[in-house]
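Model the whole thing, not chain by chain.
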Amino acid sequence: MPKVKQVNHVAIVVEDMDKALSFWRDALGIELHGLRDVPAEKSQVAFLPLPGSEVELVQPTTEDSGIAKYLAKRGPGMHHLCLEVDDIAGMLSHLKSKGVRLINDEPRTTADGKKYAFIHPESTSGVLVELYQIS
Amino acid sequence: MPKVKQVNHVAIVVEDMDKALSFWRDALGIELHGLRDVPAEKSQVAFLPLPGSEVELVQPTTEDSGIAKYLAKRGPGMHHLCLEVDDIAGMLSHLKSKGVRLINDEPRTTADGKKYAFIHPESTSGVLVELYQIS
């Protein structure tokens, strides 16, 4: 049986990265470990790791992406919850067999080789859940 | 300088606990470590710990609580992010000195002795942030 290992990250969609960093980095004191453009997601992402999991701040860089539309509709706030699993392909088949609605039926691969897939909020009580398999 | 230690939990507000558990416990396979009425929060809470942090499912048990109103307005989904800190009183003074808007100026105490306080989403890019000091 495929298994959820831990929370990998919580992604927060922000309107203004500088303002967001003034809270999350400067006021709370969480160290910023990188601020990168992620063209595949039409976003700029700030990575603020904590032991065990990470806070990610995501600012859309275009107006036509899914995350830009989410921001326009719902405002800034928590966007998705990413869970690390040990076997993403197995977990996706298992979830499918349980009738869970998936956004990605098959794992996709990030630029740095991590496998990921999203589960539809309809099946999760309103949370956009991302699954990650790191190794 | 007070410090954020880790993500303690992510709280998800749900309309229907059984339906929520059918995904989070039964489909994802995260073990349920308790399902408790929390009268102070007018909620029933399901605790699903993972190594390092926890998923909490929260179903309002009355219609007049803050969380019930949140559910009515925004629908189910992520409600707050809880960060464990080493010195909550110190962190609250520090945040105040930085101009961060707090919901609780002073730490409150849970029934089981944990100190907690909430930060207003206005200062955090839209996230209701809870701080916890466990020991």
